[in-house]
Design goal:
The complex is a heterodimer of chains A (148) and B (190).
Chain A (H helix, E strand, L loop, with lengths): L3 H11 L8 H9 L3 H14 L2 E8 L7 E7 L6 H9 L4 E7 L5 E7 L2 H15 L3 E4 L3 E5 L6
Antiparallel strand pairs in A: 2-4, 2-5, 3-4
Chain B lengths: L6 H4 L6 H12 L8 H9 L3 H13 L3 E8 L8 E8 L5 H9 L4 E6 L11 E7 L2 H15 L5 E12 L8 H11 L7
Antiparallel strand pairs in B: 2-4, 2-5, 3-4
Helix pairs in contact in B: 2-3, 3-4
The chains are: A alpha+beta (148), B alpha+beta (190).
Chain lengths: 148, 190
C-alpha cells in the first residue's frame, strides 16, 4: 500500500527530475524528507512496475520525426485480422480499439512525412480499407500528469 | 527510428562529436537512480558532470527534450479509463475552447486535427484519463458545465482494448535499431 510520502514522490517525479548535480536531494528538500528515502522509494516503485524508466521525454517532432493519428472503420468480423496487419508495421504505436464507427485508432511515427504517406498507403492496400489521416494541426497542450 | 539531430546545430558544450552521440544514446536507454545520475553519465562517456548537465540543459532549451522524468505506468496506478474526447468547434472559437480544456487537470493532451465531412465534423481532440468511465464522464460534464461548453457537439471515444503500446524511444538509427523493434509489445487489457 502506498503511504502519503510515496504519493508525494510519485506526483513530484511525474513533473520532471531537475537537471542538477544532486536532483534527488533537491526533491527531498522540497518534500521534506531525505535524499536516501527518495531514492530507495523510487527504486522500489521501479521494481514494482509503477514507474517505467527514468529518462527523457522527447519532443519527437523536433528530433526530426513525423507523426500522425490514423483511424479505420473496421468491420467487426475482420477486427483481429486487421489488427494483426496494422500492428505488423513497426511504425505503428498505440493502437486502440475505440467505441465509434471508426473503431481502430493508432499513431504512425516515422522519420519523414513521405514515409507516413507510404505506411498509410501500404496499410490500405493490405487491409483493403480506407485509413483516415488526422495529422496534428496545432498542439495546445501535452502533459501526462496523473496524480495519485 | 528517428534521425539524430545535426551535430552542428546542437553541439556547443565542448563535448566531442563522439561523446555527444554517446550521451544521446546513454540517456535514451535510461538514467540510473543514484544520487548523482548525471555524474554517472559523465563517467560513462569520459566527460565532466558539468559538461553533461550543460549539454542536457541545452537540449531542453532547444526543445528536443521536454523534461527528464519518471514515466508512470498509469494502468497499474488505477488509471484504466482512457477517453478520447472530440469536439466540433467553430474555427474561430477553437483557440478559446482549447485554452479552457488545456487548463483542466484531467486533460493530458489537446490538439487540433482536420475534419472529414460529413462523417467526422470534429476538429479538437483531447484525452482524459480516469480510474473508471463513470468518473471520466462526470469530470467531462463538470468541465462542460463550469466552462459553458455544453452547446458544443462532442463525442467520447473510450478505448476498450489496447492492442499495441510502445514507449517513446527515439534514437540514432545506426546505434539503436534493435531497441525500437524490441520495444514494440502487445498488451491486452480486461
Amino acid at each position: 500500500m502506498m503511504d502519503e510520502l510515496d504519493k508525494k514522490i510519485l506526483n513530484r517525479a511525474q513533473l520532471g527530475i531537475p537537471v542538477s548535480d544532486k536532483p534527488f536531494a533537491d526533491i527531498a528538500e522540497e518534500l521534506g524528507c531525505s535524499e536516501q528515502q527518495i531514492l530507495s522509494k523510487l527504486q522500489d516503485m521501479l521494481a514494482d512496475g509503477l514507474l517505467s524508466r527514468f529518462g527523457p521525454m522527447y519532443d519527437a517532432a523536433s528530433l526530426g520525426g513525423a507523426f500522425t493519428l490514423a483511424a479505420i472503420d473496421v468491420p467487426e468480423h475482420r477486427f483481429d485480422e486487421v489488427t494483426e496487419i496494422v500492428n505488423s508495421f513497426s511504425q505503428v504505436a498505440h493502437n486502440y480499439k475505440r467505441q465509434h464507427q471508426l473503431n481502430m485508432w493508432f499513431v504512425v511515427g516515422t522519420e519523414s512525412q513521405q514515409e507516413i504517406d507510404s505506411v498509410i498507403k501500404d496499410i490500405e492496400q493490405q487491409t483493403q480499407l480506407s485509413v483516415l489521416n488526422f495529422p496534428k494541426e496545432e498542439e495546445f497542450y501535452v502533459r501526462l500528469y496523473l496524480p495519485v | 527510428m528517428m534521425a539524430q539531430p545535426l551535430m552542428s546545430e546542437l553541439q556547443s558544450s565542448h563535448l566531442t562529436v563522439e561523446q555527444y552521440s554517446q550521451l544521446f544514446t546513454a540517456i535514451e536507454s535510461g538514467l540510473p537512480l543514484v544520487a548523482q545520475p548525471y555524474l554517472a553519465l559523465a563517467e560513462q562517456i569520459g566527460a565532466s558532470e558539468e559538461q553533461v548537465i550543460e549539454t542536457i540543459k541545452e537540449w531542453q532549451q532547444q526543445g528536443l527534450i521536454r523534461r527528464f522524468g519518471l514515466v508512470i505506468h498509469h494502468r497499474k496506478l488505477g488509471y484504466v479509463a482512457n477517453a478520447m474526447v472530440v469536439w466540433d468547434v467553430a474555427n474561430e472559437d477553437i483557440e478559446r475552447v482549447a485554452e479552457l480544456l488545456s487548463q483542466q487537470k484531467v486533460v493530458t493532451l489537446c490538439y487540433r486535427r482536420p475534419r472529414f465531412l460529413p462523417h467526422w465534423p470534429y476538429n479538437l481532440f483531447c484525452m482524459i484519463h480516469g480510474k473508471n468511465r463513470a468518473q471520466v464522464l462526470a469530470q467531462l460534464d463538470e468541465i462542460c458545465r463550469v466552462n459553458k461548453l455544453q452547446t458544443i457537439d462532442k463525442k467520447v471515444l473510450f478505448s476498450y482494448k489496447a492492442y499495441k503500446q510502445r514507449g517513446g524511444r527515439y534514437s540514432n538509427t545506426q546505434l539503436n535499431k534493435s531497441a525500437t523493434s524490441t520495444a514494440a509489445t502487445t498488451t491486452r487489457n480486461k
